[in-house]
Amino acid sequence: MADTDASQPVAPGADKTPDSLEVIRRFAETYAQRTGTYFCVDPSVTAVVLQGLARHKDELGGALCPCRHYEDKQAEVSQAFWNCPCVPMRERKECHCMLFLTEDNAFRGDQQTISMDEINAVTAN
Length: 125
What we know:
Layout: H1 17-35, H2 43-60, H3 73-79, H4 87-92, H5 116-123
Helix pairs in contact: 1-2, 2-5
């Protein structure tokens, strides 16, 4: 049995994020391929956004856009406007987070996939 330090707080959803990150990663790859969009040329942008989406999914129950400020995140999740893919993305292919980029976007890379190893490599501190 692993030793645990009861004095160390455990973040909500800390045990779920790796699984949630994999789910979000697969969703993002499928969505990019389905919509003809691409990830950012800088893989760290993609990785950080995916991590934020996974964290919000664990903490709030929905993949709320991590690139915006909210007065009440739980209320925003309930309204679903900014849940990924957000309404601007679904309606106009406008992704504020730069996760899903169209052909004409100067920051668009040529990838529609990203591995967990890539995510972990660019986000390791």
